[in-house]
UniProtKB/TrEMBL annotation:
Protein name per the record: FAD-dependent oxidoreductase
Signal peptide: none
Organism: Nonomuraea zeae
Domain FAD-binding: 2-329
GO molecular function: FAD binding
Entries under InterPro entries matching the protein: FAD-bd, FAD/NAD-bd_sf, FAD_aromatic-hydroxylase
Top-rank lineage group of the source organism: Bacteria
Amino acid sequence: MDILISGASVAGPALALWLNRYGHRTTIVERAPALREGGYSVDFRGDAHMSVLRKMGVLPDIERAQTHMGSMWNVNEAGKKLVAMPADLFAGDVEILRGDLARILHDATSSHTEYVFGDSIASIAQDADGVTVTFERGPERRFDLVVGADGLHSTVRALAFGPEREHTSYLGLYCAVFTTDNYLGLDYTGHAYSTPGKMVSLYSARRNTEAKAVFWFGSPPLDYDRHDLDRQRELLAEAYEGVGWEAPELLRRMRHAEDFYFDSISQVRLDSWSRGRVVLVGDAACCASPLSGMGTGLAVVSAYVLAGELAAAGGDHRAAFAAYEREVRGYAAGCQESAVGVSKWMVPESRLMAWFMNQNYKLLPYLPWKGLMAKSVRKTASAISLKDYGVTRPAGPAPRRRPSDRAS
C-alpha cells in the first residue's frame, strides 16, 4: 500500500520503519523545513520499550548517543546544592535527546521512505478505494491510508476527528525548552531551582558541550498563537519576572535560541483512534504528556503494533485498526494515568509544599519506597504483552518519487 504519514519526529519514522519492512510504500510529510534538532531528553525503560528498539535495529545507535546523565541537583537561589535526585528515578534504561533520536530514526528510514519537508496536509477526502490528500504547497496526491503521527497539535486529527479543544485535556502547566552554552560547566548533571508554581533547570547535554534550559510554570490556560514564537517568549518572560537563580540570564539567552519550544502540558483522549482510512499514532492519538516519562516509549510501541496488525490483517485496514486499538488502548491509559497529579509535586504551588518535597528528596535515598517508585514506573512502562508479528523482508521498496522529481 501507499501510506502517508504526517509527522517526522518519533512515531512517524518509527512506523515507517516497520511499514517498509512489511513491503509498504511510505511518505512522511513534515511542516518544519528540516528535522527538528532541539528538545529535551526522552527515555525508554522496561522490556516493552527495549524489545521494540532491539527489533528495530536502532538500539545500538541510541546507546551510543545516550546522555549518560547523573543526578539532578535541586539548588537554592544562590546556586548552593541542596538535594540530589538520583538518575535512576527519571532517566530510564537509556536516555537520549529527542533531536538525536529523531535523527537516528530518520537515518534508519530515509533510503526507503520519501520525506517531504516544509509542507503540511491541507485536506483529506476519503472514498471506498483510498484517500485524496491536498497539501499546503505540494500537488494533490492519492494514498491508500493516512496516518497522523503529528503530535499533540495534530493536523490529521483536526481534519478527520474535529477541533483540538474537543480532544485535549490541559494539566495546568506550561513548559519551555531551548539549547544554550554550558556556561555553568555542568558535568553530566543538572541544577534545578524552584519557587512556588515554577521550576527552572539547566542540564548538560551532548557530552557537556552544550546545555538544555527547561522552564515549567503553572497557569490557567493561555490564549496565544502557537506559531508566534515572539509572543511565547514574552509569556515565559512575564511568568518568570522577579525569579532568581539563573532565570534572568537564561531568559536573556532565550532571545537568541534557535530551537526555542513552548507548549502546554496536555493529554489527548479520544473515543476512537481511526476514522475510515485515517488512523492516529503516538501523541496524536494518546498523548500522555512529558510528565509521564512514557510518551516516547508509547510512540515506538504503538508504531510497532499498528504496523504489525496491518501485516497480520493482510492489509485489511478496518480489522487492523481495530486490533491495534485493542492492543494498545489499555497500555496508553496506564501511561496517561501516571502523569496525573505529577505537576503537584514537580512544581509545588506553595512554599510549604516546596519545603515538604525537598525534605522528602533529602530522605529518599534512605527510604524503602525509593525502589518501589522506580519499580512502579517500570511496571507501567512494561504493562503490555507484545505479539511477534514477524517481518517479511528487511526493507521495503524504493520510495515513489514526487511528481516534481519525475518531471525533472
